[in-house]
Write a structure and sequence with these properties.
about 350 residues, alpha/beta, seven-stranded parallel β-sheet, two-stranded parallel sheet, about 15% strand, globular
Length: about 350
C-alpha cells in the first residue's frame, strides 16, 4: 500500500483510556494513526474513530496483530488488563503473552521504534523518589505480570528491536472512569469520602497527554532498551489533591481518614470475598508516598510534563460531570468503565 511520507503509528489498546489519548495526541501532531483494539474506536466526545485507521483484534491473536502491523513505522503498546479487572490468569495471557506477540511480530515487520507502556506497580516503595534503578517489588498479579512484560521488552531489545519502556505514575485525565468514577460519584452525592492514612503522603500523578508525548519521544528515540519514569513535576499530597477536587466540584463531601493498617486488612478480606472493587494495588499504596524522579526522561528524551495533579483532577472531574458514564460503559476498557461498587455502595448510601 502506497502511503504519504508521514509515519504510521500503531496504538494497541487505541480505544482505551491511555491509548485513545495517545492516538489523539499523535493525530494532532499530524501523524497517521492506526488503532488496534477489541473495542470500538467511536469514543464519545472525540473524533478519533473518524481520523484514525482501525483494526479490530486481540493481542493474543497473532494473525490479527500481524494485520495491524502492516506498513507500520512506530508502535505504542498500551494493551493491558489493569488491577480493577481482577483478571487472574488473563493478566498473564494478555499483559505478558500479548506483549510477546506484539513485540516479536513488530521485530519481524521491521518497525522503526516501539514504546512499551509499563506501570508503577512494579517498584519497591521503601525509598522515595523512585528512580529507574529502584529495586522492583511488584504488587499483586497485575504488578507481577507487568514486570514480566517489561522483561519481554528488554529481551527483544537485546535481540535488536528498537524498544523503550515507559513507567507512568497513576494516570488521571479526561475519559478516566474506573476507580475515580467511584470517588466522583460519592462527591456528587455529598457523601463522606473514606481514605486510608492521614493524607500527608506526597502522591504524584501524570496526565494521559503527557504520557502520549513521552510515548512518541521514546518510540522515536535513538536510545533503545531503556526504562523511563513518567510523572507530573507539580504534585502535592493526597490530602491536598482530594480537598482541591472536592472544592472544585462544589461538593459538600468531607474526607474521613482511617488508619491504614486495619483498613488494608479489611479491604484485603473484602477483596478475597469478591465483594469489593478495590484490588491490592489500591489498598496497599494509596496511603503511601509515591513519586518518581523523572530526570532521565527529561535528559534523554527531552520530555517535560505540562500538567499538575490539580490539572488532571479538574479535567477528569469535568469529563465525569459532562458525560453519562453508565452509557459509555461498554468501552471494553476498565479505566473508561463505571465499576460495580459492590459493598462500597452500601457504605456510600449510609455516609
Amino acid at each position: 500500500m502506497e502511503r504519504a511520507d508521514v509515519p504510521l503509528h500503531l496504538v494497541t489498546g487505541g480505544a482505551g483510556f491511555v491509548g485513545s489519548h495517545t492516538a489523539e495526541y499523535l493525530l494532532d501532531q499530524g501523524e497517521d494513526v492506526r488503532l488496534f483494539d477489541r473495542a470500538s474506536p467511536d469514543i464519545p466526545g472525540t473524533d478519533i474513530g473518524e481520523r484514525a485507521e482501525y483494526v479490530r483484534g486481540d493481542v493474543r491473536d497473532k494473525g490479527a496483530v500481524r494485520r495491524a502491523l502492516d506498513d507500520v513505522d512506530y508502535v505504542h503498546h498500551n494493551v493491558a488488563l489493569v488491577p480493577l479487572t481482577k483478571a487472574g490468569r488473563e493478566f498473564w495471557e494478555v499483559n505478558v503473552g500479548g506483549t510477546e506477540n506484539v513485540l516479536r511480530l513488530a521485530h519481524e515487520e521491521g518497525v522503526e521504534g516501539v514504546t512499551h507502556v509499563s506501570s508503577s506497580a512494579v517498584y519497591d516503595l521503601s525509598t522515595m523518589p523512585v528512580t529507574e534503578e529502584t529495586p522492583v517489588n511488584p504488587i499483586g498479579q497485575y504488578g507481577m505480570s507487568k514486570l514480566a512484560a517489561d522483561h519481554v521488552a528488554l529481551k527483544h531489545a537485546a535481540k535488536g528491536l528498537p524498544v523503550n519502556i515507559i513507567r507512568p505514575r497513576t494516570v488521571v485525565d479526561e475519559r478516566r472512569a474506573g476507580i475515580y468514577q467511584i470517588l466522583f460519584d460519592w462527591m456528587d452525592r455529598d457523601a463522606r469520602v473514606y481514605m486510608l492514612g492521614d493524607g500527608s503522603n506526597l502522591f504524584q500523578l501524570v496526565s494521559a497527554r503527557d504520557i502520549a508525548d513521552a510515548s512518541k519521544r521514546a518510540a522515536e528515540s535513538e536510545h533503545t532498551g531503556e526504562i523511563y519514569n513518567i510523572g507530573n513535576a507539580d504534585y502535592t499530597t493526597l490530602g491536598e489533591d482530594l480537598e482541591h477536587v472536592i472544592d472544585y466540584a462544589d461538593s459538600e463531601s468531607t474526607i474521613q481518614w482511617i488508619p491504614a493498617k486495619p483498613a488494608s486488612l479489611l479491604l484485603q478480606a473484602l477483596d478475597a470475598l469478591k465483594i469489593s472493587p478495590l484490588a491490592a494495588w489500591h489498598y496497599k499504596t494509596v496511603h503511601r508516598p509515591y513519586y518518581f524522579d523523572i530526570s532521565k526522561a527529561q535528559d534523554e528524551l527531552g520530555w517535560e510534563p505540562v500538567d499538575s495533579n490539580f490539572d488532571v483532577f479538574e479535567r477528569a472531574y469535568d469529563w465525569y460531570a459532562q458525560n453519562d458514564i453508565e452509557a459509555t460503559s461498554d468501552s471494553g476498557s476498565a479505566h473508561r468503565t463505571a465499576p460495580k461498587q459492590q459493598i462500597l455502595r452500601l457504605l456510600r448510601n449510609v455516609s
